[in-house]
Amino acid sequence: MMELHSTSWTVFFMRNRKKNTWKYGEIALLVGLAMALVWGVWSLQTQDRLEQKMIRLHVIANSDTQEDQALKLQVRDRVLTLATELLTSSQDMQDAEEKLAKALPAIETEALQEIQDRGYSYRVTAQLEQTEFPTKHYDGFSLPSGEYLALRLVIGEGQGHNWWCVVYPPLCTTAATDVEETAIAAGMGKEDVHLMTEENSGYELKFRSLELWENFRQWLKKA
Question: How far apart are CA 155 and CA 124, in angstroms?
Fold first, then answer.
């Protein structure tokens, strides 16, 4: 009887230990999921803040020939000069967007004039539209992949490599040492500016997280 009683308690203990172990596993899984969701919400909110406070510049060359690629940069420089002058007095993102929208015909004319001055007869279109961008590293700052509003210029057939930067705030024409000051003056928060300008392992992890969650969001849109 004593041996049977001891065996029964051993079986009871083992069964309960398995149940408790399974409960601990469930708890760990739930905690992990909760942390992932919190991190995901932070990532998407950060991405949205960046997207809603800047306008990218996207210039697409006619082709990848050396001549067409050089022309792309010449058109870029001329449009950047005009856009920088236009947006210098912008109060915020909305104001900048409205000014660019009104100036699209003038921007297109300016780009076309540059093309003709260089001896080409390519057409060119200038539009403001949401555009998907990859992660990009510039002199003094970086931007995660995402869908940004962009001043988009397509030269000729638009089959060549493209060039992109940020036209508002005017980070394309800002010295690396002045990026933070320029971005904050345009209404960006210090947290977002530091994310763009920091270069360490934590910064790389945050950027990778932003990219993964943004890719997940884009996948959901297409599903």
Answer: 5
